[in-house]
């Protein structure tokens, strides 16, 4: 038979063994790193607009390509993982976080070969993001269409 532990004793045990939360520190670094990534993207946007004279879709595409490249490069060098440990959710700013989620499994499974390792495992993490992102965008599009018909 299992011994029954009184509720007070159990709560004291849990309180004693549970590590202290660092929410404030985590939220601060998450906000700062996420904001820094967004500011970096805005910097590239202004520079490409000013120096290269880009605008519209070409400007947006160029900034996206630069951020994807930087996210992939930093992942390959092992720096993005360290940033992620410090910043938590702040490092998953959509485009650089997505690049990281594609490159990480590709690097991890490289030893299994380029076809069965890299190619087949590359979207292990990013695949659900693509699927549910597509489903959500279709749902929002349908909702937007219905609201447009009503009003």
Verbal overview:
The radius of gyration is 22 Å and the shape is extended. It is an all-alpha fold and 151 residues long. It has helices at 7-17, 23-51, 56-76, 79-87, 94-108, 114-121, 126-150. The N and C termini lie far apart (66 Å). The chain is built from seven helices and no strands. Helix 2 (23-51) crosses helix 3, helix 3 crosses helix 5 (94-108) and helix 5 runs antiparallel to helix 6 (114-121). It has a domain at 27-122.
Number of helices: 7
Low-confidence stretches: none
Instruction: Give the radius of gyration.
Output: 22 Å
Proportion of beta-strand residues: under 5%
* Total number of strands: 0
Helix content: over 70%
Derived from helix and strand composition plus strand pairing, the structural class reads mainly alpha
Strand and helix order: HHHHHHH
The major β-sheet equals: none
Shape: extended
What multimeric state do the chains show? single chain
Distance between the amino and carboxyl termini: 66 Å
User: What is the mean predicted local confidence, pLDDT?
Assistant: 86
């Amino acid at each position: 038979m299992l011994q029954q532990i009184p509720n007070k004793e159990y709560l004291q045990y849990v309180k004693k063994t549970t590590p202290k939360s660092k929410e404030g520190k985590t939220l601060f670094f998450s906000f700062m790193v996420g904001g820094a990534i967004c500011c970096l993207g805005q910097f590239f946007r202004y520079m490409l607009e000013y120096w290269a004279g880009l605008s519209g879709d070409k400007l947006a595409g160029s900034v996206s390509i630069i951020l994807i490249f930087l996210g992939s490069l930093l992942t390959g060098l092992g720096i993005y993982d360290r940033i992620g440990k410090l910043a938590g959710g702040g490092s998953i700013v959509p485009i650089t976080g997505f690049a990281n989620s594609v490159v990480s499994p590709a690097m991890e499974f490289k030893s299994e070969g380029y076809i069965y390792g890299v190619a087949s495992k590359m979207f292990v993490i990013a695949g659900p993001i693509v699927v549910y992102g597509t489903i959500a965008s279709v749902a929002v599009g349908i909702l937007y269409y219905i609201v447009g018909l009503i009003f």
